[in-house]
Amino acid sequence: xxxxxxxxxxxxxxxxxxxxxxxxxxxxxxxxxxxxxxxxxxxxxxxxxxxxxxxxxxxxxxxxxxxxxxxxxxxxxxxxxxxxxxxxxxxxxxxxxxxxxxxxxxxxxxxxxxxxxxxxxxxxxxxxxxxxxxxxxxxxxxxxxxxxxxxxxxxxxxxxxxxxxxxxxxxxxxxxxxxxxxxxxxxxxxxxxxxxxxxxxxxxxxxxxxxxxxxxxxxxxxxxxxxxxxxxxxxxxxxxxxxxxxxxxxxxxxxxxxxxxxxxxxxxxxxxxxxxxxxxxxxxxxxxxxxxxxxxxxxxxx
Length: 302
Prior knowledge:
Layout: H1 3-12, H2 14-19, E1 40-45, E2 48-55, H3 68-75, E3 79-82, H4 92-102, H5 110-113, H6 116-128, H7 141-155, H8 164-174, E4 178-181, H9 185-193, H10 197-210, H11 214-226, H12 230-237, H13 245-266, E5 273-278, H14 288-294, E6 298-301
Parallel strand pairs: 2-5, 3-4, 3-5
Antiparallel strand pairs: 1-2, 1-6
Helix pairs in contact: 1-4, 4-9, 6-10, 7-10
């Protein structure tokens, strides 16, 4: 496969490739029940309020309709805020940006940068998917990792076009609500590309070992998400970050810190805002919910 055809394939699936990053490194236990809550919180200080929604970036058509509190939060908001502008994903410049960051430029191949064991495991996994690893030889390990996970989830029927972000993005357009973004696609890509070579291979190896159980694990995350079960979501989504503190810092902590001033500024406005970000960003001691509570805001799960 040529660099050009690789780029076309990647950009076509970019929404799936980039935004599933938080789900690809979790190890899940059994989920026995869901709670009578939802994955949306009302954040308030005085008369001003915003809504903060934990998103699942890939869903199936049959996952709709959504829980009622999500629709009510959208209806009560005049503006929508998401991680990135989803229209940017369809921009031809995005394809070039992925190629610029995700492909090795020094003629090194995956066979050269990966250990023999990791390379052989990747080759076998690609083979089971009807692909040949040699077609992806110029990929950096982080891009191969995200691509494999995205392809696997798409094969199971999970698609970004049914994700929460896409659903509310399109709905806001239809209703002519203003749409804002917290960061750029280029910045998201830089989070992955900035990882050390050792960390990139470690994440790829873990994904390869767990890819056969990915469908079950992802379905369990959805069950906990739909019921607003923060305890289960926190234990599953964040548990394995303990083994990857570098990843947690770059993908979650740093970005949460960047977003907080923006989120607080929304609370100074008269309009209500619906802020939709990956569910993993809300959880834990360094999650957005904890940070907002520390700042003295009222945080109510709906």
